[in-house]
Amino acid sequence: MSVISVAVLRPAASSAAQELSATLERQRQAFLQAGPPTLDERRADLARLKAAIRDKAEALARVISEDFGHRSRHETLLAEIFTALSGIRHAEKHLGQWMRPKRVSVSAELLPGRARILYQPLGVVGIISPWNYPFQLAIMPLIAALAAGNRVMLKPSELTPRTADFIAEFLAGLFPSDKVATVLGGAEIGAAFARLPFDHLFYTGSTAVGRLVMQAAAESLTPVTLELGGKSPCILGEDAVLSGAVESIFYGKLLNAGQTCIAPDYVLLPEAKREAFIAEAQRAVKKFYPRLAANRDYTSIVNERQYQRLRRYLDEAKAKGARIVELNPAEEPLEESRKLAPTLVIEPGDDLALTREEIFGPVLPVRTYRRLDDAIDYVNRHPRPLALYYFGEDAKKRDTVLARTISGGVSVNATLMHVVVENLPFGGVGASGIGAYHGEIGFQTFSHRKGVFLQSRFNGAFLLRPPFGRITDLMLKLLLRR
Ligand code: NAD
Question: Which residue, by CA, sits nearest to atom 24 of ligand 1?
């Protein structure tokens, strides 16, 4: 059998459990036999991956674009390739320091004993990834898992099938199947995959499926990281510089046509700024995308199902009398290209699907508030979002928003940017996720932090051993007094 056919599994639903278990077992045995990889081995894996990503960047951009109908090449190079390369570069640079056992102090009564934390690879980890950034969201967790010394089984999304095939062959060409194996298939295979007794399961995707993944993992007490979605708010303060804020918001909203987990989902702005915001939005969209249909920079909606879902949101809003502002600068028909014009929905009702569900497309609800506290209350009445954006110059107001709202991450006077800072944990909170990764946090997510105590030859432990008597009483008196 060739390496490729072993490293890429396309199990039938009926035999998935067996095939997947066999692969997991093979990886686990290989892991136990080889022991934790050295720093040099891990660096070599990362370097090989980095060179191959550079080499295949343009091919990957074409494949992803085929999956989407159209995906901007620049968006792929920025959001899939650059992010992956900078993740690798950061890990290469800092891995030696991350892997080093960390000395920690011990309390006075344990002296002269010493303590340290050892970072051990967990073993075999599972990664389940979604379609919206189909390469980056598979490769970033893979980078962290390999840096931490693990073996990996990866299940990319079936909704971007060409990219999934591409990733499978790409990884099969780089790693032996007992180190990295790719599993191809849909929800049923995903469900079988999530039931495997991995040493850790890392899932990126919707909150609804995240729930199923956590239930499946609970059977084997497999720890999970869940990178989920949600409705990320954008709050404009009274003193926000409107033109700059609007450009940032539309950059973040229209990248990948809004199909971004941390895209601004809706805007909260002072009542008096509503009309100025709409005018600025028209200007910003025209500046970024003077035309939409044939514009190589503007990405399509990934498939008909997602397209129809977004259309339904807008139809419902229209039917219920919401004010809708379509930002289609050249007023082109777009259906052919499966592109959707950026669209504002002003003051949508609470009952609308686009108010309740994550939008994941270029539709932007705009709500107004009277006092900043009202905006904060609105955010806090809803599930905790993956990201929050605040625009404003006043540091005190900014700090109030930071302190009183809870979200996975925040960018201030920008959108999306916190995700590319490798030193920041990236992850959700509450309904938007459990756990985090990127940089050292990602290394730790895929490591076991083993606490080790090293006893000194000369120590006072005997003072607390039975038979308990006067000396123990004296010691306890001292210990309990402090
Ligand atoms: P998706 O439908 O591609 O599903 C994600 C993965 O889950 C796929 O590989 C799929 O096969 C698998 N899957 C489906 N059913 C399963 C099951 N029962 N058990 C196990 N696996 C199963 O992607 P999606 O869920 O539509 O992705 C979009 C969502 O992901 C949005 O909500 C978005 O906000 C979120 N997201 C979050 C992040 C993040 O980093 N937090 C990043 C991107 C997307």
Answer: 205
